[in-house]
Design brief:
single chain, alpha+beta, D-amino Acid Aminotransferase, Chain A, domain 1, 7 helices, globular
Amino acid sequence: MAEDILSFDDRDGAIWLDGKMIPWRDAKLHVLTHGLHYASSVFEGERSYGGNIFRSRAHSERLHNSARILDFKIPYSVDELETAKYEVLRANNIIDGYVRPIAWRGAELMGVSAQGSKIHVAIAAWEWPSYFSPEMRAKGIRMKTGPWRRPDPLCAPVDSKAAGLYMICTMSKHAVEAEGYQDALFLDWRGFVSEGTGANIFLIKDGEIHTPTPDCFLNGITRQTVISLAEKRGIKVIERHIEPHELADFTECFVTGTAAEVTPVGEIDQHRFIPAQITETLLADYESLVRSPPKDD
């Protein structure tokens, strides 16, 4: 029930905002913030396992790079962000949870050009179970091709984790959820298979993995990790353009992302898949890796 949902603006705890730890409910911004009106905002999604943030430094480095692509600079170094993230975990007593750093242009200027705006940074963390329910993950989630497409790289900053790029994710996910599906599949502007609304996609046939070339969407950190795990197993990974009609040729499918982790897919449109050896192996390898003692990124 909606009344039972704990709103994200009304919780106990603390959020790191512009270098200071403040009460959760006090972490607010002005209605004329540039990031709200013009999407001049970048963010990260990270998971903590056993108190350790998986690939933490890689995420902090990507946040800096995303800001650079959007033509602003994060006013805190990667090392400072790393320290702050763990301070947030401790302040909120989070062991297994989700970490959300975000940076945005402030309210000093209102207009398309906002070069003099202050850059703000916040980091929050909360307990969060699997993105999809255990039942869904066991049999595979249901996906449907959504109504929107990933844009041409000449039309959007596709190599950044920019908030504005997620507008069509929300719209597409809402559209397919209304029909009983768990997620939408994006095609790109050319009509090739691209990704889910918040996760990269992998398809399996004849003992090999096929995955779309990340030339118009984010090459996810989890995606890179799973490719490395597959290669260590001697499983061939082929990055290429995949046409929608080819979905009929594959026997297994899964998606990857910080939130989704490794989640089997049981259905895309009229196509059916059964989670089998490769999916199960990589799911187990990933879960083992994220809960292992941390190594340098």
